[in-house]
């Protein structure tokens, strides 16, 4: 006899069914639903149904096809409802799950058994057509035109135009009267695919679709990430320490340390005294000329009255501004194509940044969020993360992102931010967490902390501030051996 946890009459022999029925009459088993018996108590039934959903559906609704929104969502219930397509219309309530069966065409060529059971997973083409069927209500059975369009855009992006064209031809066959008889739905799908492939005037309605039609495709996932961060930044007033290096000498000292640490984060490592000699004292750069000029490039923009206060504009203008800034920053590295957006995808660890063909559109659309976020710290963090996440250039993106961030702060009268060597891992970790998991809180907290740290020093005397930062472990690397201290904590 099978496990008493879940007994399905459809899976049992006649003798086994009779045995189960006798035990059921004796009170040793419980009937969860007609043809479904269990030894578990009713409180555990919703979990049981969720765990064995496909077994139960195949037993109760054999030869049905998984349909509409349920298929589009990968088989997951929506609002505790699954949709099937069978020979007649009915609704069945199970513990924790409502099954909506819609009358429609049965299994078609290409529809596959689910886990070897007689309930079928539809082809991608069928799923698209069925989800273009009009449906209304709070729990509509179809996802509608916009979500189908978004899925088609993702298919084209991930698998290429030939795959999308092939899907359309499969849908053409399925939409015929001999199969699904969905000429209207195919007409919509045909228009969507033709628009994505630029073979006909655009009928696209989503943000990503309109951007593609306009010749500036976007990374929709990244834009949603930017919007999520912007929501948090609008809802949470952030402190902005005032400018602490306002005059010429202190501003130059600050710019030097900002550039020194910003380059160190990216692996351009110098002893601080050596960097000081070629940045501030006019010493030679012949030993490592390109690395030296990387440090000088950031220093020049951090010092310049023009670059240091140049905030990111919203819309088309952001493209040329970032290109100009990068061209100036990386002028001594012609091999990285200064000022030119990347032509090949780039990545850091497991994070792949915005695809080259989506850089321009994503920057344009993302920058339009900036005016909605309070000027100062909040806008600075959004601008920095946007450039970091798009990673528009072959090299220099992290340094560029921090320059953009600090320009927003300077323009608002706030202290710029220095990310010291010991804080590198926390800084990168919180960026990764926001990028991969969409969690902005650690990023905001970490950046506010290091903002406070930066503003706690005085920059008039460079020897003294370097000494103070060393005492606070700023130049250390090991988080195991050291922690970053504020100047007020040095004696503790």
| Mean pLDDT reading | 94
What does the overall shape look like? elongated
- Counted by DSSP, the helix tally is 20
Helix content: 40-55%
| The named CATH superfamily of the largest domain | Fido-like domain
Please give a handful of descriptors for the protein shown.
alpha+beta, Fic-like fold, 11 strands, 492 residues, three-stranded antiparallel β-sheet
Walkthrough of the structure:
This protein has helices spanning 14-25, 45-51, 53-60, 68-72, 124-130, 145-159, 161-174, 183-196, 207-213, 220-235, 248-265, 272-279, 289-303, 317-329, 359-367, 377-390, 397-411, 424-437, 441-455, 462-471; strands at 7-8, 30-33, 36-38, 65-66, 81-86, 90-94, 97-103, 112-114, 117-121, 347-348, 351-352. The protein is built from 20 helices and eleven strands. Helix 11 packs across helix 13 (289-303). It folds into three domains: 7-122, no CATH class; 145-213, no CATH class; 220-489, Fido-like domain (Fic-like fold, Orthogonal Bundle). It is an alpha+beta fold. The strands form four sheets. The chain has a four-stranded mixed β-sheet with strand order 4-5-7-6. The chain has a three-stranded antiparallel β-sheet with strand order 1-3-2, with helices on one face. The mean pLDDT is 94.
Question: In a nutshell, what does this entry contain?
Answer:
With 492 residues, the protein is an alpha+beta fold. It is built from 20 helices and eleven strands.
Task: Write the topology of this structure.
Elements: E1 7-8, H1 14-25, E2 30-33, E3 36-38, H2 45-51, H3 53-60, E4 65-66, H4 68-72, E5 81-86, E6 90-94, E7 97-103, E8 112-114, E9 117-121, H5 124-130, H6 145-159, H7 161-174, H8 183-196, H9 207-213, H10 220-235, H11 248-265, H12 272-279, H13 289-303, H14 317-329, E10 347-348, E11 351-352, H15 359-367, H16 377-390, H17 397-411, H18 424-437, H19 441-455, H20 462-471
Parallel strand pairs: 5-7
Antiparallel strand pairs: 1-3, 2-3, 4-5, 6-7, 8-9, 10-11
Helix pairs in contact: 5-7, 6-7, 6-8, 7-8, 10-16, 11-13, 15-16, 16-17, 18-19
């Amino acid at each position: 006899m099978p496990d008493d946890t879940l007994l399905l009459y459809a899976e049992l022999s006649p003798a086994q069914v009779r045995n189960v029925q006798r035990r059921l009459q004796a009170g040793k088993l419980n009937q969860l639903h007609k043809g479904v018996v269990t030894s578990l108590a009713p409180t555990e039934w919703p979990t049981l149904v969720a765990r064995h959903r496909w077994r139960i559906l195949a037993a109760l609704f054999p030869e049905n096809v998984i349909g509409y929104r349920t298929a589009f969502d990968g088989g997951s219930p929506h609002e505790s409802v699954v949709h099937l397509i069978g020979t007649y219309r009915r609704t069945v309530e199970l513990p924790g799950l409502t099954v909506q069966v819609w009358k429609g065409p049965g299994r078609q060529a290409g529809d596959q058994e689910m886990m070897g059971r007689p309930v079928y997973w539809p082809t991608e083409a069928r799923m698209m057509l069925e989800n273009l069927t009009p449906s209304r209500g709070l729990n509509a059975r179809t996802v509608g035109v916009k979500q189908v369009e978004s899925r088609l855009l993702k298919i084209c992006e991930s698998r290429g135009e030939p795959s999308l064209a092939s899907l359309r031809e499969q849908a053409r066959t399925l939409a015929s009267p001999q199969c699904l008889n969905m000429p209207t739905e195919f007409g919509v799908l045909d228009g969507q695919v033709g628009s994505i492939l630029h073979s006909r005037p655009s009928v696209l309605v989503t943000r990503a679709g309109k951007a593609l039609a306009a010749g500036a495709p976007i990374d929709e996932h990244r834009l949603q990430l930017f919007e999520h961060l912007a929501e948090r930044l609008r809802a949470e007033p952030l402190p902005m320490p005032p400018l602490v290096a306002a005059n010429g000498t202190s501003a130059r000292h600050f710019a030097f340390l900002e550039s020194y640490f910003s380059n160190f984060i990216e692996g351009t490592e110098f002893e601080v005294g050596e960097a000081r000699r070629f940045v501030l004292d006019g010493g030679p750069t012949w030993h490592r000329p390109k690395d030296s000029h990387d440090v000088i490039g950031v220093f020049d923009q951090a010092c310049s009255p023009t670059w240091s206060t140049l905030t990111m504009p919203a819309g088309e203008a952001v493209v040329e501004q970032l290109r100009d800034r990068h061209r100036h920053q990386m002028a001594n590295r012609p091999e990285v194509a200064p000022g030119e957006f990347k032509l090949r995808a780039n990545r850091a660890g497991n994070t792949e940044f915005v695809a080259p063909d989506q850089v321009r559109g994503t920057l344009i659309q993302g920058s339009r969020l900036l005016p909605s976020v309070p000027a100062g710290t909040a806008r600075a963090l959004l601008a920095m993360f946007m450039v970091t996440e798009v990673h528009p250039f072959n090299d220099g993106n992290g340094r560029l992102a921090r320059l953009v961030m600090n320009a927003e702060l300077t323009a608002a009268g706030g202290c710029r931010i220095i990310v010291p060597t010991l804080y590198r891992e926390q800084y990168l970790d919180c960026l990764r967490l926001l990028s991969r998991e969409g969690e902005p809180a650690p990023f905001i907290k970490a950046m506010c902390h290091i903002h406070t740290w930066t503003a706690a020093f005085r920059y008039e005397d460079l020897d003294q501030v370097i000494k103070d930062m060393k005492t606070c472990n700023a130049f250390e690397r090991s988080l195991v051996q050291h922690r970053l201290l504020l100047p007020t904590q040095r004696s503790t």
